[in-house]
Amino acid sequence: MSKTTAEVFLEMVAGRQGHFQLESGHHSALWLDLDALFAEPRRVAPLVALLTDALRPHGVAVVCGPLIGGAFLAQVTAAALDVEFAFTERVMPAVPNGLYPALYRLPPAFVPRVRGRRIAIVDDVMSAGSAARGTYAELQSHEAVPAVVGALLILGSTGAEFFAQRGVAVEAVARRPYRLWLPTTCPLCASGVPLEAVSQSASI
Question: For every one of its 204 residues, what pLDDT tens digit does the chain have, with 9 covering 90 and above?
């Protein structure tokens, strides 16, 4: 039996089962360590090519991704589309509180390069969409026009629904079901499973 695209992707990253607090503030039973995803560019290249093809019809002038993995993906995708590249950097509060506490900032040198232009926001994986949402808000604050959000893998529907509700197209190479819980309704919390905060790591 041939493997699905999602299965191919998940073989490239290290996954752990447990009880995790994500950057978004949601809880989940699965954590993906994405740091080494681009360590072997040739391995991930076929998936990047599929995402590039999906983004091409949207006619963007810039591809922007949040550091770290999203920025790597944005750079190679921008080169393939022959458009400009930009990135955002995460700013986490000293004591994260509530949902979506992370901010994403565009370096000043990129501000005039995105103003008034159609932008593709890309990230390696999107679940709750914390990094993509933060990048979206930052781009809008500089009068850019986020036209499409793309990911190699979309887990669940929380992040994708946020953008669909705002009329922003969503493209994914692969999708996979994924459970997210609010802290107040998390069954793992109710069962007393120890919580590991991974909000300072690469986000999904």
Answer: 467 888 888 888 888 999 999 999 999 999 998 888 998 889 999 999 999 999 999 999 999 999 988 999 999 999 999 999 999 999 988 777 889 999 999 999 999 999 999 999 999 999 999 999 999 999 999 999 999 999 999 999 999 999 999 999 999 999 999 999 999 999 999 999 999 988 655 545
- Asked, for residue 22, whether it belongs to a domain, the answer is no
- For residue 80, what are its two tokens? 């393939």
CA distance linking residue 79 with residue 62, whole number of Å: 10
Which tokens go with 162?
Answer: 């946020």
CA–CA distance, 157 with 179 (Å, rounded to integer): 9
Q: Residue 187: how many CB atoms within 10 A of its CB?
A: 12
For residue 90, count other CB atoms closer than 10 A to its CB. 20
Helix boundaries (H) for 37-84: 41-55, 69-81
164: part of which helix (H) or strand (E)?
helix 158-164
What is residue 43's three-state secondary structure? Answer: helix
- Give the CATH number, domain containing residue 138: 3.40.50.2020
Cα separation, 62 vs 18, whole angstroms: 37
For 31, half-sphere exposure in the C-beta direction (CA atoms, 13 angstrom radius) is 22
Count the domains in the chain: 1
Encoded amino acid at 8, one letter: V
Read off the amino acid at residue 106.
Answer: L
